[in-house]
Amino acid sequence: MRRRSFLTLTGAGLTALVTPSAPAVAAVAAGPRIHVLDTLPGGNGQVHALGRPGIAGGSSGNAPVYWTGRTVRRVPFPAGYGYGTGEVSAVNRHGLMVGTVLFPSWGHAVGFTYRQGRRTATILPNSLTANDVNDHGRIVGTGENHTAYVWHRDTVERELRPSSPFSSVWSAVGINNSGTVVGADGDGAVVWPAGTDAPAQRLLPTELPEGVSYAPAAVDDHGRIVGSAGDFFSDSQYETYWDPPYTADGVRVPGLPGYYNEGYFRAISPTTGLVVGGAPTSFGSPPGYPPGTAEFWTGTGPIRALPRLQEDGDADAFAAADDGRVGGCAVRDDVLKPVIWTGVR
Fold first, then answer.
1. Which residues touch 106 (CB under 8 Å, ≥6 apart)?
2. Residues 6 or more apart from 245 whose CB is under 8 A from it?
3. 3-class SS at 42?
4. Pairing state of beta strands 122-123 and 225-231?
């Protein structure tokens, strides 16, 4: 699936995707305020995770970092590991952080855990990624050879099985406080319901036209799953959600005007239903196409845009908290800044 977001680009690539003098098309919500956090030397950063107020995680200078207030701190790794590239992907309400890091000498990524104040992070066994953690300390991510796991107390608690014996697990990206896990296998988007060791359950629809796929991103404590529906041939993405018991097709939500109704849902708050994501800049867009924007949806009404740092600067959102905080990034003077929006409701 092609994600046409600017967020994987830096330097000249980032600058090229910032559209000078592009008119703002989507209405920005009244009320939310945007706050810029500090960065490591290099100036760039993204907020991917929100813990209790004052704690956030993400990346800066391509390294895993966390913030206390506005102050950025690098996640420490054991001696001999050196500095790796990666991110903090999630933080639970007890301050347990999880993420993924790649050390140059290793040749592959690994998942890790970290708590503020500890001397070093801990590498998770059998891991390639660590993508989410719930408030009970259960972590989901992937391992080698198309495997996925739930870890608890830094050990493997469960291997997640695909929806059929003839498939394999591709991703495990979200877990809620009940233990429901979402991800994808070789047959499509899946959910592993809480309270069972059963194989994955396919998310509907399962009969898809060629080139169409679904990608879950997160699940809240009520079981709502958010993500996107993609069409490879039209190079399009559409905001989508599923509700338990997952016996109905995923529902597409009309996107922001001016973006061809295209965008991603990337996160949902634990209990309040606040959904966030982005409507991306499109490659090869016609003149006047607006810059990428961070967006939110409360579960009813239209999707709305969040404030940018500058009118022609891109933005995106990756994390949502019950208290109305949203984490993400926004461009100012051609530099990607880590930001938190407050008062998002």
1. none
2. none
3. coil
4. unpaired
197-223: average pLDDT: 94
* The one-letter amino acid at 66: Y
Q: Helices H, strands E: what count in the chain?
A: 1, 28
H runs (alpha helix) in 166-256: none
The DSSP call for residue 28 is B
* Alpha-carbon separation of residue 104 from 145, 238, 317 (angstroms): 21, 35, 28
List of long-range contacts for 115-118, beta carbons under 8 Å, 24+ apart? 116/55, 116/66, 116/68
Residue 298 and residue 247 in contact, taking contact as beta carbons nearer than 8 Å? no
Side-chain half-sphere CA neighbours of 162 within 13 A: 17
Distance (Å, rounded) from C-alpha 107 to C-alpha 293?
Answer: 34
Burial of 333 (0-12, 13-18, 19+ CB in 10 A): exposed
- Distance, CA of 84 to CA of 90 (rounded, Å): 18
C-alpha to C-alpha distance for 57 and 85, rounded to whole angstroms: 14
CB 188 within 8 A of CB 208: yes
Structure tokens at 99: 């993420």
pLDDT digits 0-9 by tens, 85-113: 999 999 999 999 999 999 988 888 999 99
Between strands 96-102 and 109-115, the pairing is: antiparallel
pLDDT value, residue 28:
54
